[in-house]
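Researcher: Please predict.
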Amino acid sequence: MSLALGAIASVCIAQTEIKEWNRASAADGLVEKDTYCVFSSIRMGQAIEWIDMCRSTTHVPCCGDVSCFDSEKHMAAVADIISIRYSQDDLEEGMMDDFMLWRLSGYMSPREYIHSTKARFDFLAKQTESLLDYEKNSQWDYNLGAWLEADMLELRVRLLEKELLKVDKVFLDEINAFDEYMSAVYDVYDVVVSGGPGSGGSGGPMRYSEYVRDRHTMRVQALEPVLFYYSDGLVSLPYGYEEFTPELVNQEYDGYVASLEEDEYENPLDERIAAIEQERQKWNEWVAVRQKVKAMLPGNLQEIFLQQTDMICRYNYVLLKNRNMGYGLCSESLKECMIKQDWSDERILNTKDYFYL
């Protein structure tokens, strides 16, 4: 997997541990007194020791100018999370997620007990948005910012999946099927999207991160209504996307394959076709597993789960229709040609795919 973000083991969100207070002296400069982490309760001494080690072994060149950030505390949080994420040290299962979440709450912590699961995830989104809000002055800064955004979204996916498994193991097969689909998605990036050997350039990491970010955005949108129904009793039936069927998505896979041509600057045509066909297979398997899971769910949840399946069909239909273009450094004219997820269903369906523009 190119520039692999990796599948890191999930961290358990324990309701009973939410108000575990992290206390540090002012000299530590990591966490203010009387702050707590919404999702993690790491031992203070262990966290400080390991983060200090990461700081000393991981070079973060983008974080040298405090004027790009709101404060020194903001700069330190970005640098520490990057250091934690890209440290080469082995950690016991789930610990890296724990450290990232603990450090995020050190930068921006809630001041009151957070009762509902939805409120905790909403606050995590605010933490992440604030963390990523800093000035970027070079391609390296943009690459690293895109990495961070993709990593934090992937972390959110792992947390949502872990919470779902805590309430019902029926979702395990669906989670495993999604992981297999994502493995095929990474292969498509390597073989089709990134181009031939030696391609990518300085904007390659940004393009890869945006590509991954789109898939995890789709995943978050599919998971949250289901989890929030279980945990908080929220019944949120999204707008229906019945027109976007698995059959329609497969037609767009056909179009994607047909649009490929021999090109001396790309990987061999047969390899590119094979990668897309493998993604198609894993996509269909994921959707099929979702249909089986839906049949085992109670009434309201069945409807929510069904509409989220329609939603991911719509989301992937747009990605395929765009031929995985528009990521990273590209012209404004190309970006303007891309079909947008927030367009109306009618406009999406009636707009020709990029190959025919």
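Model: The first helix runs from residue 44 to 57.
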